[in-house]
Write a structure and sequence with these properties.
Two copies of one chain form a homodimer. The first copy, chain A, has 225 residues and is mainly α. Chain A has two domains: 80 residues, Arc Repressor Mutant, subunit A, CATH 1.10.10; 138 residues, Orthogonal Bundle (Tetracycline Repressor, domain 2), CATH 1.10.357.10. The first copy, chain A, contains ten helices and no strands. The first copy, chain A, binds a DNA duplex (30 and 30 nucleotides) through helix 3.
DNA sequence: TTGACTAATGACCCGTTGGTCATTAAAGCA
DNA sequence: TGCTTTAATGACCAACGGGTCATTAGTCAA
């Protein structure tokens, strides 16, 4: 049951107004609050009481909308899955640029998603406590991962048709192409938002590295400005 | 208090022999059991009772050697930190090969550590529930990470002196060099040991990608065999 | 063989927390 | 204004699990 498609959350601690009936808005607010707390504390360590407080409601209210803590996680995952990536996928066909342009756009979207969105909390929970949700890990693999890697693959195939690739596209592991973004996400999950990860420079270095590894004529690409 | 330095665990579910006094062996066995369970279930979700059972002892025995669950995690981290990486560091000075040879050796050691060792459980716990151990996250950053990245940096500097690099070594982010290994570890933490990650091929592709991105003359490197 | 020492045990304690439900009150309507 | 509907509440329950400790038994020196 997809609830919201909005990838940017309407978070903030939520000031406690007396008692208000807002049936429509609740589920999204609860998911936002939960993701925010899970991102910093993990799934098991986050009490539902805390989620409720952050959402500005009482604990019981959560059970009006979600039958259990695990169901809340599933709803959060389904809500946030897809999102930006899909919209990038829609843009791609019209783009028709070089490998550099297309890959740059996709990687940018991936970094947005992994570093600036609370979807990162999902990844964190799936890594640390995913064994509790075997079905959801599978779902994540099929939807989020497969779509991202599938997009990489399509971009590579198009570049190969243009003769830009040094290898046949089947010989390239798409995971390798996105790996530095995953590593950046891990960095953030471990050490939090800090001065140690300069996204812009990192992202540029990533694109540069990958292009040099893939292109027929790598020496023509970005020379540090 | 470092207990064991042995990186390869003496695990196995441990058959329940009646009652035996083995003061020396216990701490290591407990750590092994804990890491094995944390790797698949996470820290918070693993009961100490389960750790004890796996180690072939009773729960109370754990508290004979570790004052608390968190202390057990700290001991496990301190026990496993360092290890293989340090031994590679000792080998490096004598090696004096090409960038390819040196980096290949280091990456191989990193993959060993991240994919074949229960140290991976530490990373998993630190990612998912690290907020509970701020001091240990810092320790991990300083010891494990800094030593790994420092080694990359030293290898790069040596390669630069030989004129092998296209960029000054300061311009290369060492994290970028190891990123695909981190991504592989994430893959494993998410989906477990499966047919989907062919380590040998992946590792080779990793080395190839990085070398092409770094070397002055990348076209001379590995052409797919 | 026996006694002293202490590693090992597991029943027990109690704080925590996911989940319930009788009660309260906001909102809409006549 | 009063009545009905139902969203929201929070006190409460029960299970769970980290941590304790009186008791048991392995080991070894005398």
């Amino acid at each position: 049951m997809p609830l919201t498609q909005e990838p940017s959350p309407r978070s903030e601690p939520a000031p406690r107004r007396p008692r208000q009936r807002r049936k429509e808005a609740r589920p999204g607010e609860i998911i936002d609050a939960a993701l925010a707390l899970w991102a910093e504390q993990g799934f098991a360590a986050t009490r539902l009481e805390a989620v409720a407080t952050r959402a500005g409601i009482a604990k019981g209210t959560i059970y009006l909308y979600f039958p259990s803590k695990e169901a809340l996680f599933e709803a959060a995952l389904r809500d946030r899955i897809g999102g930006t990536l899909a919209s990038v996928g829609a843009q791609l066909p019209e783009l028709e640029g070089s490998l550099e342009a297309e890959l740059g756009l996709l990687l940018h979207a991936i970094y947005d998603r992994l570093l600036e969105t609370d979807s990162a909390a999902l990844l964190k929970v799936l890594i640390g406590e995913g064994h509790r949700f075997p079905g959801l890990v599978e779902l994540y693999r099929e939807v989020a991962l497969a779509s991202g890697l599938g997009m990489v693959r399509r971009i590579l195939e198009r570049a190969a048709q243009r003769g830009e690739l040094r290898l046949p596209p089947e010989a390239v592991d798409p995971r390798m192409v996105v790996a530095p973004a995953i590593a950046a996400a891990v960095w953030r999950m471990l050490f939090g938002v800090g001065p140690s990860l300069d996204r812009t420079a990192y992202e540029k270095a990533h694109l540069d590295l990958v292009l040099r590894g893939l292109l027929v004529e790598p020496c023509s690409t970005t020379q540090s400005p």
